[in-house]
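Structure Section — protein described below
Tokens — whole-number codes for backbone shape
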Amino acid sequence: MSIALVIPDRKLDHLQQKLQQQLPGVLIEIWPEITDPAAVTFAVLWRQPPGCLLQMPNLQALQSFGAGVDNILTDDSLPDLPLARIVDPMLTQSMLNYLQGVVQHYQLRLDEFGAQQRKQIWKAKSPRKLQHICILGLGELGLAAATHFSRLGFQVSGWSATEKTLAEVRCFAGDAAFADAVREADLVICLLPLTRQTENLLEQQRLALFKPGVILVNVARGAIVDDLALLQNLDSGHIAAACLDVFRTEPLPPEHPFWQHPSILLTPHISAVTNADTAVAQIAENYRRSRAGLPLQNLVCQQRGY
């Protein structure tokens, strides 16, 4: 019995070593250098090449190396097996640190002062009045973000596909409630999972429901936002600024207009990066559970996509 780490284009020696310490005696190999594909019963995945798991006929369970699974589910040949994701307090804290930094960046008008610097303009301005934050997506990270900003004194609304209840946060659910959730928000944070239902969710009609002058922060998946619609709303001023950490194609192609747009702040998908040191315990535990015939921790529904 063995474990395959199927995470292309990433150095995995550290992960392999840490996982080996948790599971002494278990063969852990890095794809595509798999000694005996028929012996692999557990695969740790991230952006795996479509069809590669067909080489492993005795797989029993699958583990995402991140909090999301959308990049895994794009593989049409993915076997119908239990699939788990990482739920890591360190990853959640990383996301909260990033989001708080972004909110403060816009509160202090650092985007505007950066533009002034490039034009050698000396003009003082008082901080932006960002009072209401809307969180799109109330999963693990969304609930943590909503709670965090509520505790900091912001008015917080949250929107999700299904009903959620959270103290001091106005929660909305379903398409009909989307407008109510975003209408008064000064800043909207997207933390939705990417599914068939959320792809291109933030298109022209929904962006038009946002408050004029709103700031959009996308730390979920790039395909949730219609790129052209976002650019049009930024050019018109309906959306004042956007901070984007995720994109339809990563790395972002050099010719993409996002690179040069004066109202967009780009970061290279670093808002919440899985830490091998804290993720290995969950991976090892799920391997043990799969061998014992027990349910995996942090299971996802392949049909729902989260």
